[in-house]
Amino acid sequence: MKPFAYHQPDQIPDVAKLLTSIEDSKLVAGGMTLIPTLKQRLANPPALIDLSKLGNLKGISDDGATITIGAMTPHAVVAASKLVQARIPGLAALASMIGDPAVRSRGTIGGSVANNDPAADYPAGVLGLGATIVTSMREIPADKFFLGLFETALQQGEIITAIRFPVPQKAGYTKFKAPASRYALVGVFVAKFADGVRVAVTGAGPGVFRVPPMEAVLSDNFDPSAIAAIKIDTDGLTSDIHAEADYRAHLVTVMAKRAVDAALS
Amino acid sequence: MGNVIGIGAAPKRKEDQRFLTGRGNYVSDIKRPGMTAGVFVRSPHGHAVIRGIDESAALAAPGVIAVLTGDDVKADGLGSLPCGWGISDAKGVPMKEPPFPMLAQGKVRFVGDMVAFVIAETPEQANAGAELLKIDYEVLPSVVGVLEAVRPGAPQLFDDVPNNICCDWELGDKAAVESAFRKAAHVAKLSLVNNRLIGNPMEPRAAIAEYEPGTDRFTLWTTSQFPHVVRFLMGALVLNIPQHKLRVVAPDVGGGFGVKQFHYGEEAVITWAAKRVKRPVKWVASRSEGYVSDRHGRDHVTEAELALDETGKFLAFRVKTLANMGGYLSTFGPNIPTNLYGPLLGGVYTTPAIYCNVKVVFTNTVPVDAYRGAGRPEATFVLERIVDVAASEMGIDRVEIRRRNMIPKEAYPYQTPVLVQYDSGDPMGCLDGALAAADVKNFGVRKAASASKGKFRGLGYSTYVEACGLAPSRFAGRLGARGGLYESATVRVHPTGQVTVMIGTHNHGQGHETTFAQIVSDKLGVPFENVDIVFGDTDRVQFGMGTYGSRSLVVGGAALSKATDKVIAKGKKIASHLLEAAEVDIQFESGKFSVAGTDRSKTFEEIAGAAYVPHNYPLEVLEPGLEEQAYYDPVNFTYPGGCHIAEVEVDPETGTVTLINYTAVDDVGTVINPMIVEGQLHGGIVQGVGQALFENAVYDEGSGQLLSGSLMDYCMPRADHLPMMKVATHSTLCTHTPMGVKGCGEVGTIGSPAAVINAVVDALSHLGVTHVDMPATPNRIWRLLQNASLPVAAE
Hints:
heterodimer, A: alpha+beta, Enolase-like, domain 1, 5-stranded antiparallel sheet, 12 helices, B: alpha+beta, Aldehyde Oxidoreductase, domain 4, Aldehyde Oxidoreductase, domain 3, 7-stranded mixed sheet, 20 helices, 28 strands, 28% helix, globular
């Protein structure tokens, strides 16, 4: 790890000020991606701005039609939340599948969504539920937030403060774990709302994406059998030493079926 | 006053008290006054010429003390890292043995090859300095696979090693095999890959070296399985340090599995550097660094053919293997795919003719050497896979074909056609035990239950025999060993009767401090807690060849047993004097020397006291003191064997293989501590399952980059991958070791890969699948099913 300055502001405006005034400075939420990167000397930020003193960024609230989760809420808290388990069980299940107990205790929803790792779990839940990303500047719909490999719509100095999830009729998440890392080789989040179904896929490509053909069919018939014959185009899907694109494409269909099953159970 | 805890008991492990309470003493825990930190600069290229190194910016960086390169090594006239085995081809031509410089000279040959060593006040400063080193490389094409490496036009690693072939090795009667093949009713053929593995001991490698100008002595603390061998190889052959001026200490070591049984260049560089900078130097590898520098294991490509008569009797076995050596010859490198492979191709069968040809090949990869099992898992895998292939092709039941060819218990000692003579064994007994324990007769019910869920269930068998307890020195010498393979032990009885044992093996997880104490407690009748085992320090322990090849109990335990016998013999002499009886009338039992047929006796403590306070003592004929030493060189290998049965379930939708049941019945000879043996079997099986289902070191052809260079990409087996295992022993006693022991450290790793893969193939056989290469990952299984002869119906 190379030396860096460390800031721990307690007000959001101070965070923004530090972020814009110190070039290449980095925010630390749970640090589950950033800290290993620093330890491997792959990143060399001059300053870290720790968000843990911003007290109002933690917690889960029920707003009726939506559930709002503060950006600094750890995965373990979401997974164990009676509220999330009751209102969006698929999302609680997703949080329980992230990393390992240590990662779930430190890692946060805001950090995961801002990092937008192509194999992370939360982006599938956020996009699959059509959530709204609430930032220090504005509100961004999930469909406009994830821009591909580690890229998001966040601007310089903009900080995620919360994620607001519409409560679906049913939702489920299924993940085929990469053998070594246990990141999603393919993870599929399926959510059924009164006005239709959303299907979001993580791990298969350079960023989370939706599957309109599946959404269309499932909106008419929310049953695994409805999508069994839908094949995903391998174009743009990832190939690596663990899985070639055609296998990932196949797994999207299998995991989507199982996610529907999970949503129904 | 504690109790005697003897052979066959299962006390909790003595050493665990300190490990579980965080009181272990590992190399990275050690701090020396004035210690500096070193960092190795490693090649980022698989194959490149070093055109120049500019050290100026690194040397100017804050805290940097020195930068050492291959030129400095050359200027100091230091030796090459030695290979401990020199094998030869069929005509007696010795293997090609290019130098292995401790820091690269002129060329790098694998990603991770060491180019420079940067020493600074702190690890951070050393890392920062290392990043400022400017190395000008001319990148050359790399070759990483053995098939590619021997092709005409392949990149050549060394000017004087044509086609990258180190040695074209043979074993067996080629003509007899050919003649048997001509008479065969059936010939089974199989091509397979034995995947490359990375050991991943929990503790990364580390070293500290210190030079004391006052005494002209060096001390090296290193994560080693064999400190005396490091002292010899490094002191005598690399750095020219006299043995009495070099102390090597291997304190607590967190796992080895072979990875730490080699003399590494890092050890030599650090020891040399400590004298140059006149301060202690410490280096601790990162996990990432371990991936590209810890010696790798396995990596074979093999073609095998088995000739059978019409009844399924094996007539002859022919195996041709290309074995990857990586970029240089490591300490045991060329011995592993040859001497520890070919002689095991007979397995537990009566195959009368066997021929094995192994081309040992250099590639632009990390040097390959012994990894738990070392050669025997590879041999077992080839044999047990092709037996299944033959059974399937001939329509003979897989258990029945094994029975028809097994060496009967009465036929031991059994001379194989490939050098080794098995002293004892009962393969049929192990097979019967495993069949019962695995509830094979009800497998059909379980298979049907899986099928009703859309899953394919399979059962796989593997029998095996291995050669361990390395090794009879004379035999090994004929095969090319450049050292002896005996072991030594000293039993020091203190005046108060407690015992300290100095032994040349090294305990890094095996439980030696417990097992060896049980042997002493049992034989001398002293309380278990009154026995301490000292190892891992060349200044405290007389000599030793270390721990590997399941040799510690077999060879080290035998030396200990003999030294203990000498203590008893001397004790009898002392007792005969004190009890005024003839020596032949003195009996020793349960910690007491007594005169036969009388009630006159002396306790062990009384005899020890008399030996050290020799007021009433036969000083004219006997020296005072009670300390004895023994060296033991085995007369033969030991041959543990057994039968493993794996049961798997395959999800055809995703290709996922789940290990459902695992049963092992092993013949390990006398069991000293059944709990420790069970732990060794569990651990060994897990590593074999890891090879079969998860682990794979993958290199990029052309660039030579290691693509599986972290725990994120190299899949280690985890607890939730495994079922509860049923392990049992079915032991016959070794006829030539003092206690009848055979060794148990590697059997699990040897028996399990074939059992698991045979189960996977069985699960998929109805689809026409006849072979699955390791690891049987979901991606690989799914792809096989896409190409399988029948459609997959599991929607």
